[in-house]
Design brief:
- The chain has helices spanning 2-7, 12-18, 25-37, 58-73, 78-89, 95-111, and strands at residues 41-46, 49-54.
- The protein is mostly helical.
- It folds into two domains: 2-54, Winged helix-like DNA-binding domain superfamily/Winged helix DNA-binding domain (Arc Repressor Mutant, subunit A, Orthogonal Bundle), CATH 1.10.10; 58-111, no CATH class.
- A two-stranded antiparallel ribbon has the order 1-2.
- A hairpin with a 2-residue loop joins strand 1 and strand 2.
- The radius of gyration is 18 Å and the shape is elongated.
- The protein starts with a helix and ends with a helix.
- The model has no long low-confidence stretch (mean pLDDT 92).
Length: 113
């Protein structure tokens, strides 16, 4: 999906080129078929090949994936997810990063999310 969001549209071969340590071409085609069955992407036939494009806007897909991750790995707990992310990446965050995160937490607190 990242390759499709970056490019806007791509063939299976183009997507394969963008994947670090890629699986085989057949695996990419199989994944594209699954994503199309789930209505995340669609294709158009062009010059004897399929060109794929995302159907779901990136922000909506990101939100859906985050909710799925919360439910799957953190029992729906945003607190546990954030704690894990901070544990994993805190050493890579700058003071400005922490300030922005603190502002987001404060904004969410005020909005009662």
């Amino acid at each position: 999906m990242d390759a499709l969001y970056r490019r806007g549209r791509a063939t299976a071969a183009e997507i394969l080129e963008e994947i670090p340590d890629p699986p085989g071409y057949s695996a990419v085609r199989a994944m594209l078929r699954v994503l199309e069955e789930k209505k995340h992407i669609r294709h158009e036939a062009e010059d004897l090949r399929y060109v794929y494009m995302p159907v779901v806007p990136r922000d909506k897909a990101r939100r859906s994936a985050a909710l799925h991750m919360l439910d799957t790995f953190f029992d729906g707990s945003a607190e546990q997810a954030v704690a894990t992310l901070l544990n994993v990446s805190a050493r890579n965050l700058s003071k400005d990063d922490f300030d922005r995160l603190a502002a987001l937490v404060e904004k969410a607190r005020q909005e009662g999310r």
